[in-house]
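Aim 2 progress update. The chain analyzed this quarter is reproduced below.
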Amino acid sequence: DGFVLWESNAIVRYLCARHSAGRLWPEDLTIRAETDKWMDWQATTFWPTFRPLFWNLARTPVDQRDGNAMEESRLRTAEILGYVDAHLKSRSHLAGENFTMGDIPLGCAVWRWMALPIQRPELSNLKRWFDTLAQRPAFQKVVMLPVT
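Predicted structure tokens:
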């Protein structure tokens, strides 16, 4: 109907509110705030930290890659994913026991992290969460594509 929206997390929020209120878009304001927090964390903390590694490996010709920036990004990204791993120790998903909109952006971003040919630390809770997302048919169809 002519409505145009940009910014991926805003799009996720809109679609979840419109088509999945009470499930993906939690009605409980505390849980919704938790989902919003993780969506914002993905955009403001994870992506800026991970971007140099991703960009160099996925978008930069081999002879133009910045090895120091890549290694710094890899180490720092592993460190901040440790926070997520610790958070997931006592819950199935980012905002509790149910899959919500908060899992979508970080799940997409972690797919890129998992798909890159790099050394990663053992983050068992993050892996469990990611493996759960990766079993979802929509995740397989839309997210688990070749890294580009």
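The chain has six helices and no strands. Residues 61 and 74 are 18 Å apart (CA to CA). These observations will guide the mutagenesis experiments scheduled for the next reporting period.
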